[in-house]
Amino acid sequence: MWIIGKDIALFYAGIAGLFNEVFAQAVVFSTLVLLLALVIKAHYHFKFREAVPTRFHRQRREVAFAPGDGKPPIIVPWENVAAWVTQAQGMTQYGVQRQYGLGIGFIEPETGQQHFIELSQPGMPLALGLWEAVRAYMEYEVNTREELQDPHGLHRPGDPPYEGVHTFHNARRRLHRRYREGDIGLFAVTMWYLWHIIDLWTIPFHLAEWEIRTIQKAGQKTLPASLDEWSQPLPEIQWAKPSAELTRLSKEVRQRHARQPNRPITAIFAEVYVEKATISA
After folding, report:
1. How many CB atoms lie under 10 A from the CB of residue 127?
2. DSSP assignment of 206-238, as one string?
3. How far is it, in rounded angstroms, from Cα 28 to Cα 22?
4. Using an 8 Å Cβ cutoff, are 164 and 209 in contact?
5. How far apart are CA 86 and CA 68, in angstroms?
6. Which residue among 10, 77, 147, 261 is least enclosed by CB atoms within 10 Å?
7. DSSP per-residue string spanning 102-121
């Protein structure tokens, strides 16, 4: 209206009318959306007070699954665990929708019962990356959380192994450093500050830290005594060793990856696994 009518008064009148027309509906709709989001968040948040997480012990080379419903945890050898990535897609009135997930489980030898967990993921690379992080940890290819942190300077030595207020300050220091070095201009700096002002500055990071502390405390209370004892570190002389077959296959994967470093590691694993199954057959 301002551009077409060349009348600033008409522009202000139009904005005021639009505001008065939709304000009440917007307040009601936004409140309902907020309440729904809080209910969903609370539902998943309080699950941590009862759920026992799956635990990986690389010194024992074992994995502890918690079936839930008060049942004791089931401990299985690492090499008996299977992992898979799922992809599903369907057509809705909004277009094609895709879903991805990572599954981890095993078959109990005594009963033949299947035990598994499935974790939804935003995309296929993230699902594969989550499994690769677990596998690399169990096979001593990574030894600290810092090796898996964001490589863009958002984690510094001594920082907690999760996102929090320190992530915000590290990002701001990185922003200033890039500006001094000429990597970015004043516009990028201004937009960064504007975005975080709209995003309530450090409040979301404080909320993330509060939730993590709550989950950690809940996890400590729900962990069974037997699983807590199982989780303790072992003397190095008692560390379990991988089987000869796994050692051979891992060596083959490393050799092929060295020859083709740009090839996805998942494709190399799949190729070696298929060859192993063909030879066994």
Report:
1. 22
2. HHHHHHHHHHHHHHHHHS-HHHHHHTS---GGG
3. 10
4. yes
5. 23
6. 261
7. EEEEEE-TTT--EEEEEEEE
Containing H/E element for 75?
Answer: strand 74-77
Sign of CA dihedral 123, 126, 127, 128: positive
pTM of the model: 0.69
- Cα–Cα distance list, 248 to 244, 253, 276 (Å): 6, 9, 11
CB contact set of 206 (below 8 Å; sequence gap of 6+): 164, 165
Residue with tokens 């070095």: 181
Cα–Cα distance for residue pair 120/128, rounded to 1 Å? 12
Per-residue pLDDT tens listing for the chain (281 residues): 556 666 777 777 778 888 888 888 999 999 999 999 889 888 877 776 667 788 899 999 999 988 767 678 888 999 999 999 999 888 877 788 888 999 999 988 777 788 888 888 888 888 988 898 899 999 988 887 777 666 667 778 788 878 889 999 999 999 999 999 999 999 999 999 999 999 899 999 999 898 888 777 765 656 677 788 898 999 999 999 999 988 999 899 999 999 998 988 888 988 888 887 776 65
Q: Is the dihedral of CA 142, 146, 149, 151 positive or negative?
A: negative
| SS3 annotation, 21-61 | HHHHHHHHHHHHHHHHHHHHHHHHHHHCCCCCCCEEECCCC
Beta strands 74-77; 62-65: pairing state: antiparallel
